[in-house]
Fold each of these.
Amino acid sequence: MTDSGLRSFVARRLLLGVMQTVAVVLLVFALTEALPGDAAVALAGDQPDPARIAAIRESLHLDRPAPERLLDWAAGLLRGDLDTSLTSGRPVARYIADGFGPTLLLASLTLVLLVPVGFGLGVLAARHEGRLADRLISSVTLAVYAVPEFALGVLLVTVLALRLGWLPPTAVGYGTDLLGHPAALVLPVLVLLSRPVCSLTRLVRAGMIDALASPYVAQARRYGIPGARIRYTHALPNALAPAAQQLARTVDWLLCGVIVVEALYVIPGLGTVLLNAVAERDVPVVQGLAVVFGVLTVVLNLGADLVAYRFAPRAGVAA
């Protein structure tokens, strides 16, 4: 891989990332415009007066044409201004800051466990391809992946929290101070870890098996290179390209607010903020969260592409 080739790839991906970000902004605005109901009517109360509704629409600039509001909103985004909430008047950035802590904590704990467990099980299965350990790991990961997060969460609450009483069933009463109550994090992290660890394990296993069957590994064996060095120095890096992209998608999934898990365990993260904003038809909050989620997706996929290109430049992969 030459420096010019890497620079060209980075330039292409950056340009694509900018185009994707613009597309995200346009799509978010179009989708929120298509939401049913009227924010002014919702803010006017149970017995809305037409004059009050008209005044609210004017104060919130909802009476202006959509293209004008899009341009004003996009200009604010360029300045780092995500607008203010319709229901509370608080800056949208404050909503995101309040919900980002719990979501980031859950994502970090999940990743800390995901990387060693996923890679470890994948390498173990590849080393024992076709034998008992491989069949057991493959069967268990397939079975766990088939269980929806909500069903697994309910099962864990029923068994570990309600029947055995080992763990709290939800995070109610703990607020955002989840780190001070680690027991409340065990069940959510287990649910968040369940499906990603299965995907990562199977990807690493497949990549390791393909790499170990390649001609250059056979040549390394003929030269008498130890098996451990072949596995971890030659074969494992070739499994990192798809694994890096899977990790990027997992981080994106975690940071963008795992709505089901946060709702099930009553965790005040970004997913809960989004649910409340949709219920209240707080359009600026919905738009701000959607843009943040979209930009995170673009950035994480860009990073995954660079890692994948670094380890497998011939693939020219893109997440």
Note: Confidence is low (pLDDT under 50) at residues 314-319.
Amino acid sequence: MTGTATDQEADSRTRVTVLVALAANLVIAVAKAVGGLFAGSPALLSEAAHSVADSLNEVFLLAALRRSRRPADQRHPFGYGKERFFWSLIAAVGIFVMGGCFSFFQGVEALRNGAEEELSGYVVGLIVLAVALVAEGVSLLRALHQVRRQGGSAGLRDPALRTVVAEDGTAVLGVTLAMIGMALHMVTGQVVWEASASLAIGVLLVYVAYRLGRDARDQLIGEAMDPETTGRIRELLRAQPEIDSVEALLTMKVGLDSTLVAARVDLVPGLDSERVEEVAVRIKRSVAGMVPEAGEIFLDVTDRAANRTHESPAATGERGGA
């Protein structure tokens, strides 16, 4: 599905948010890397790896925004909506491998070998981190502003926007940890503080990567609609006078704003094949009107009395399905 005008506007806003985050992370990554090498700071180098990982992830998210809106074709009849979830999973892996693992490495190396820093190194490192904190904060505020514009928690359904918020929030917290570690190292002369900050940043990144990866995994496997919406569809089906019972109702998200709905219903006895088809069409229109995101609706319609020896013409969805 290509999406409605509203969906495309939301994508445009998300694209701007991702580009803002990408620009901030590229500048910050270079500054942190140069400052980290100059100061010999493990915490600052860990933050540089974090920013590099975030920059690559923003590229993945831009690919997700572009590719997920491609229209359905013969090879992918339900569209490319799940591309959004796939690239979000790749972004989560990037956070884990490039950010978390490198931060652990820097922390362990600092504990093993120590790290000597001059006063000028501390000053440069803290200045770089202060600038990074401001830049990451601006990017986070931009992302949170878009979340509010898109309905608060409902806006976080978009894995691209959710990933940007998680990355920016983690970056602000990570920079704060790095600043605390460097300051304590400077005051006490003990590298353990800065190494501990690097390890803490690694733990933080691994946790965020796990949460984002778990969400993307659930959506890729095939996540159902929320129970409230599913219940509304079930009640609508039960309210139809021609339906005797709802035997099964299955839903699966196939994109950010597209869901497949499949129901098996038994009809009251005595309906002929033409009437069955009319009922199936009317029911599908009712479901689509109540739940706009139900882009694909399939009905397995049977007449319990009339179909003991043969299948209803709408049973397979060829005539009664969407």
Note: Residues 5-39 form the longest helix (35 residues).
Amino acid sequence: MTADSTPALVQNADTDGPAPAGPSADRGPRARNTKAYLQYVAAKIAGAAVSLFAVLVTSFFLFRLIPSDPVKQMTGGRPVSAEQLQSLKRQFGLEQPMWQQFTSYVGDALTGDFGLSFQFHAPVIDKITEALPATLLLTGTSYVLYTALGIWLGTRTAWRNGSLSDRFNTAFALTLYSVPAFWLGLLLIIVFAVGIGPIPGLFPTGNLDSGTGETGFAYVLDVAHHLVLPVITLVSVGYAQTLLVMRSSLLDEMGSDYLTTARAKGLRDDVVRRKHAVPNAMLPTFTLMFVNLGHVVAGQILVETVFSWPGLGGLFYEALSVPDLPLVQGLFFVFATAVILANTLADVLYPLLDPRVGR
């Protein structure tokens, strides 16, 4: 066999042509995709770092616009001499120039030190750590419930588009989605905690537990009893948003050609929905899930305040009323950081679900 009678599989290096066949040929696109993905991830992380610094700057200057003197608020309106006021300002660093306060705040915050709380006279990070478990319990439980319920109902209503159950669930979800969460919480307290008409007060109005010293399983039941109303409040609003997004995404997929092909192959309708339509429709819902995941740490300030829940939201409201600047700044930074990190995590994982992203 001569060279003239066979195709030239390998060309001279000085001429243009296809790369040599072999194991290294199919590693090229994969390596390029990996490099593009790493560049995409690096860009997202850099953007998150810039956002966190912007949050630091915003949290320092924003709350200093509040027309109030925190030192006078700490004295509770009692007559205090000018020397004592000056001593308090010096203790909390309020007598320093604004630029010096800012540089000190940024430097300390980057090491996790948010200063000393004005009203509690304790490190801010300790107060945040103390209140965080209660917020995670409330918002984490609600997050799992409304995400699962919203995806399940959103899938069923979209697949039965136009049916009586679809119209009812969609209308009910739109109603709940338009209702302010704190107003719904107040309504639930009036009806099921205080009691109205023939309905007795069945649930406590607030707090994490009854404070009677229960232990073991009795304590778990007590906490669960206090969780019922705030969880119902958050689930009612959260599931409605998830249902509407999931329903809209699935409706967009239902007319696609690949679903028609799957049915033509003889697949059952349930299999077409679960294995083909729902995975592709999950992408917008996936984004929403991570946005809501950030709010698990951020909590629900108004809902926690309405139910007197001892979490980060209630602590933020209490600190803002003073104003306790170090505590407010620390909580604001923690809230914003949780949301930024959740969104960044969603951006990093999204190309793994949809290869078109980040390429």
Note: Residues 216-253 form the longest helix (38 residues).
